[in-house]
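Fold this complex.
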Amino acid sequence: MGMNGGSISGRINVAIDGPAGAGKSTVARKVAEQLGYIYIDTGAMYRAVAYAAIGAGITPDDSDRLGKLVQTLKIVLAPGGEGQTVWLNGENITAAIRTREVTLIVSQIASHEPVRLKLVELQRGLADAKGIVMDGRDIGTHVLPSAEVKVFLMASVKVRALRRFQELSGNAQVPLQQLEREIAERDRSDERREISPLICAKDAEVIDSTELSIDQVVALILDLCRTKTVEAK
Ligand code: DC
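Structure:
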């Protein structure tokens, strides 16, 4: 039976965690496509809060105001186009959350407990029905600890910076060395924060994508899913 043809009870959840630029979103989107599952980019949710904070004039260290703000936000991830469209209170913010302005503050925004509590609740609700591929930093450890497949996707800082550089070329001209510094800095703050830091779940499969193509990584994850889907039936 094909992966899409399984009964509902055969559907599983797939958690993909790892540092910025390891290829999580591209890989997660492709895995979801292959399985006929829904892809959920949790980083986009934190970015949506960062975007809203900028709009509301709230500084990224203001935990109280951020906590109140997040309660007023309606964040919707809709499948379609290039992966997914992100909506905030009815506004399409898909492109707006990828700016450097958002990228530079999002890690700090994501460090506040009230922000995380609210988004994790949303994320768990989305995964209830199973058949989800979710990427982020704390999915396998905290959001969906019982996900059937857990992957920790990593790659060297150099390769991750180079990938970002190639994505950006033509747009903002940011020197490669600066991207390397920013990625290393974001790793540090994601790893060191007190609440739900970026750590590898004990039962996660570690995949180092430094020397693998996207399709190779996707194939590895689909293999893991196949094994688990058979077990779940
Ligand atoms: O994956 P990304 O670069 O779009 O994520 C943006 C930021 O959000 C990143 O700095 C870490 C944070 N994040 C998080 O803390 N927990 C998640 N589950 C996903 C992202």
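The chain has one domain: 13-227.
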